[in-house]
Amino acid sequence: MTGQRNRRALLNASGVAIVLTLISPAMAHAQDIRGTVSFENGAAIPQGLVKVYLSDPGRQNNAQHGTDLVTLESNGKSTALSFILPSPINQPTSSTLQIVAHLERPDGWLLARGSSKLRLARPAQITLSKVLY
């Protein structure tokens, strides 16, 4: 009788472990940061590369937060680009954490920049503004 109970408990535990293994990746993706990048005045985003990353102005060096960087290619015709950025769950965050987007020409010159405060519960909306030199 106790052997049968132990076997049943082992099978139940195995079933729970399998279900958790299948659900874990889906839960991790639910924490990703989603958003869109658009250009000022609703115009088409100029041709180039849009780099989206997390930045913390509260840090002394204001460096990129972590190594997660999403690069989107603009063909010069789209008015908005969608992105998915991995969430900083394993990294310490602060209330000043921002999502930053840079539009660069193929030769590396910065054309436009925009940012948005990080809000994990809502999609980010970043508007790029021309950079003046």
Helix-strand layout with pairing:
Blueprint: H1 2-30, E1 33-39, E2 48-55, E3 64-74, E4 80-85, E5 98-104, E6 110-117, E7 124-130
Parallel strand pairs: 1-7
Antiparallel strand pairs: 1-4, 2-3, 2-5, 5-6, 6-7
User: Can you tell me the CATH topology of the largest domain?
Assistant: Immunoglobulin-like
Percentage of residues in helical conformation = 10-25%
What top-tier CATH class of the largest domain fits best?
Mainly Beta
Average pLDDT level: 77
Shape: globular
Please provide a written account of the structure.
- The protein has one helix at residues 2-30; strands at 33-39, 48-55, 64-74, 80-85, 98-104, 110-117, 124-130.
- With 133 residues, the chain is an alpha+beta fold.
- The chain has two domains: 1-30; 32-130, Immunoglobulin-like, CATH 2.60.40.
- A seven-stranded mixed beta sheet has the order 3-2-5-6-7-1-4, with no helix packed on it.
- The longest helix has 29 residues, at 2-30.
Key features of this structure:
133 residues; alpha+beta; Immunoglobulin-like; 7-stranded mixed sheet; 1 helix
Give a quick summary of the entry.
The chain is α+β, with helices and mostly antiparallel strands and 133 residues long. The protein is built from one helix and seven strands. It folds into two domains: 1-30; 32-130, Immunoglobulin-like (Sandwich).
